């Protein structure tokens, strides 16, 4: 099962990196979304997969009585999902605003901050 | 590995701390909590623009005092830690301050205090309403949190806090150039933190813990060679954050876009968190990876040292040129990391402090230059010496400081770095550090000559007096020139009296090289002695 998931994570990364290498911002956004999911799946997988019961400690006990599923990766993933989602939402709005203002959704034509054919530096000193 | 054994460790006595944390130990929380609470209150008070600046200043003053007390405490009694939620480490999330992190956090708070004064010289009513001050406070909370945390996943969270606050600051004026810069900054930095998260996932899979002190204890038992791959992934993520060559392209694309005060904060604080994380991961967490990656770090440091000032020379935009000088400083710090001896880390820590102060001041001064000349294009500037000689003196002082000419602040860290290189017979590194100094002083003095020294603009009229220069308005003089001038004066005096900097750097290097102290502080010294 872990091996299958490892291959799936690899597939997610391959697709995400392919999309991120594109010039189109929409594709890059899709790549960001996919790589985020790939990482979450990766954390889930490295936490070891088991078919155990949920990690609930009975009343009056300090430790669970039987083997439990590892709860920590789930906590990590939940945090990463929240953070990834909010940053993705920001990037989405930013891209849209940039498209409105700069009339560009292509990194090749977004050249306000770094002008194309930038002028030569002054040579007087 | 240790993952499945978690339940066994939970046996009696329970993994809870008995009794409350001593009130004095709460000191470590305030440098992070104060700016965060302050930001929340300021967001709630967004209908009261007149409250924003005084309240933010008060909060920052309190944060600076808290940082100072924390630093003195760490200097006096060794690393200070506190674990959240009454769980014993490694179950609870630890905050941990040693000399290195407390020093960086202190300098960050100081810089933010100066910048919040400078902000008053240029903030627009609209920007004030949209939360300029809360975002600055939140940025400081993220930076200090990154320095003071003792947990790897928590460090990731602070990186994201820093990132989202910097996104807000980057676009807060809504100009076209800001949107353009923010797209590049946003995508590449988000990608860097994603790489960091991947490395965290693998660390957890290999070591079974994310508490930094616990990792430092358990990593020597990891036999898998995969730990080197994890270390390389950390290196990729943090080098991207620190803008080391060849991962630096986001920095000169975005740092000149926002307001000068925001550029100054970014240049002072953000990249240094990346450097700090590099030191932590490669010398504390996975120390065996340092020797493994040393050649790579050396090559990257060398290229960064040489190419950054060359990039600065090729620019016509003054603030973009400064962006390349920031990267050059990162090269010097990477050289310290590459050498990796206590002297090297000594040089890295002192250089980081120098770079934080000096680059912030340089951006502030160039912000004033832009206000007078109406542009940051050095071909269209000129004659500012006649218009404002104080500004030109401040600029040339800072240029010499960043290049590392004695007796200014930048000289001492470079001297330590050169000494560290000679101790290790690493003459390549030494010569590249010295070459970087020469190139940086050429690039900096060229900027100075074009902006201040010649009379007029580029072209046939360069001998005629530049008539487009406007004098600084009173607001910019009081809130712009004075804070920047005080910062430059502080840098100048700190350069003449370098003993405090040396002492701070030496204790920081010692702290990095004696992880036993750090680990002992997190777990309680007796517990470690038993193991």
Polypeptide structure, described:
The complex is a heterodimer of chains A (125) and B (531). Chain A is mainly α and 125 residues long. Chain A has a domain of 82 residues: Helix Hairpins (Orthogonal Bundle), CATH 1.10.287. Chain A is 58% helix and 0% strand. Chain A contains 3 helices and no strands. In chain A, α2 runs antiparallel to α3. The N and C termini of chain A lie far apart (67 Å). The model of chain A has no long low-confidence stretch (mean pLDDT 88). Chain B is mainly alpha-helical. Helices cover 73% and strands 2% of the residues of chain B. In chain B, strands 1-2 form a two-stranded antiparallel sheet. Chains A and B meet through α2 and α3 of A and α1, α7, α8, α11 and α19 of B. Chain B: It comes from Maritalea mediterranea. Chain B: Belongs to the CPA3 antiporters (TC 2.A.63) subunit D family. Chain B: It is found in: Cell membrane; Membrane. Chain B: This is Na+/H+ antiporter subunit D. Chain B: Keywords: Cell membrane, Membrane, Transmembrane, Transmembrane helix.
Question: Quick summary of this structure?
Answer:
By secondary structure, chain A is an all-alpha fold. Helices cover 58% and strands 0% of the residues of chain A.
What is the CATH fold-level name of the domain at 2-50 and 70-102 in chain A? Helix Hairpins
Structural class of chain B: mainly alpha
Low-confidence stretches of chain A: none
Note the total helix count of chain A: 3
Summarize the helix and strand pattern of chain B as letters: HHHEEHHHHHHHHHHHHHHHHHHHH
Strand order of the largest sheet of chain B: 1-2
What Rg of chain A do the Cα atoms give? 22 Å
Q: Approximately how much beta-strand content do the residues of chain B carry?
A: under 5%
